[in-house]
Amino acid sequence: MRVKAFLLAGALASAGPIAAQDTETRQLTDHQQMVHDIYRDIIGFRTARGHQQVDDMVAYLTKRLSDAGFAQEDLMVTDYDSDGEPTQGLIVRYRGDGSSGDKPIVMLAHMDVVDALPEDWDRDPFTLTEEDGYFFGRGTMDNKYGVANLVGTFIRLKDEGWTPNRDLYLAFSGDEETGMVSTRAQAKWIAENVDPAFVLNSDAGGTALDDEFKPLAMRVQAAEKTFATFELTVSNPGGHSSRPRSDNAIYELSAALLKLADHKFAVQATPLTRSYFAALGQSVPGELGDAMRAFAENPEDPAAVATLQSNPETVGTLGTTCVATMLRAGHAENALPQSATATVNCRIFPGIGVEKTQAELARVIGNDNVSFKLMAEVTESPVSVLRDDVRAAVAKSLAARYGKDIPIIPYMESGGTDGMHYRTLGYDTVAVSGGASRSQDMYAHGLNERANVDAFYSGLDHWTIILKELAGG
Ligand SMILES: [Zn+2]
């Protein structure tokens, strides 16, 4: 998960003390206890790259599912080589009776985590700790939250003797945070063998809470920008620093980067981004909210564009961005540089493409001595539709869990979840996590990652309600 700041929650934050969370011992149902235990146990596996415990986690999950009555043939474990690191993927099939005639639904989560160094954390990152209304530990949000709730929901529904009217699948990847080798392979397998109606991702979206833990809106990730990194290099014969030449790799690269610094890509607007700003603009106060509503009305409004482009929270929604992130040059203090290289990271607006973006950068720089190298395989993905049936199922879950309707706001993410690999194969994929957090509680990938305890247990109902709505209650 790439964390996008919950601007909405921050903007709406009401003044006043932070409400203390209910820390009394709660009465857990058997299924809540079961999903808690799964969560606790899988947080204990250090599934970060370099520690090779994804296979242990897969063995644990398949045992739980098998004990709950899932047949071995419906628990598909595959080994992958993720750029030299062994990992595994797990696909689980919940057989339906086929009575609806509808294509299957696939749900996504990832089992790997970004590593965490125990010495840097206040509590052991690989031991689930409940404190002050939060669960602490690496993966409590990203994305063992999703794994535990999806597996828990499958087991709960199986226990209830429920048979869906279409097949349901879980696809859990093992290297989402790094190479996404397992994700790509699973997406291909799903396309060839399952051909689902659509895909639901547990790894993004979710409810934004205000400072006092009240739900503000449900965010649904419906698109991701394309992540592409270029290295820009200037080479030069070099020489002795006592005899400078008129051309110099460092000066040339610097001049190129200054041109990039001044460049703004064309403003883009899609129905998704316009409706996103229209919805958000209702609740964001001041000049920023005004600009959001004005942009939703007219994406060519220059004042609105200027305001949204100058705000780091909103600039990414307006179009492609490219920014220099690393630099290396020269080899000795007394030698002219033989090369200078800058890393430029781009987040490309859906539908624009890497080639056009590179061509635009080259045109802006206007110097053929600057060579471009695309650093990794790029996945471009289109915008997904939030289908009416999915929207209705999510709305039902929200109404049941919060006792009222809250707005559902589709948004575009800066890029980086498993979902893009399914979108690129033509499957509408939306991320609808059951999680809920305040803007100040986003710690995914960082220190002291945590999840709201209430939101954790409510995730089980979230997925249960959604699946029953979409696959026969
Ligand atoms: Zn994630």
TrEMBL record:
<keyword id="KW-0479">Metal-binding</keyword>
<protein>
    <submittedName>
        <fullName>M20/M25/M40 family metallo-hydrolase</fullName>
    </submittedName>
</protein>
<keyword id="KW-0378">Hydrolase</keyword>
<feature type="domain" description="Peptidase M20 dimerisation">
    <location>
        <begin position="223"/>
        <end position="369"/>
    </location>
</feature>
<dbReference type="Pfam" id="PF01546">
    <property type="entry name" value="Peptidase_M20"/>
</dbReference>
<dbReference type="InterPro" id="IPR036264">
    <property type="entry name" value="Bact_exopeptidase_dim_dom"/>
</dbReference>
<dbReference type="Pfam" id="PF07687">
    <property type="entry name" value="M20_dimer"/>
</dbReference>
<dbReference type="InterPro" id="IPR002933">
    <property type="entry name" value="Peptidase_M20"/>
</dbReference>
<keyword id="KW-0862">Zinc</keyword>
<dbReference type="InterPro" id="IPR011650">
    <property type="entry name" value="Peptidase_M20_dimer"/>
</dbReference>
<keyword id="KW-0732">Signal</keyword>
<comment type="similarity">
    <text>Belongs to the peptidase M20A family.</text>
</comment>
<dbReference type="InterPro" id="IPR047177">
    <property type="entry name" value="Pept_M20A"/>
</dbReference>
<keyword id="KW-0645">Protease</keyword>
<feature type="signal peptide">
    <location>
        <begin position="1"/>
        <end position="20"/>
    </location>
</feature>
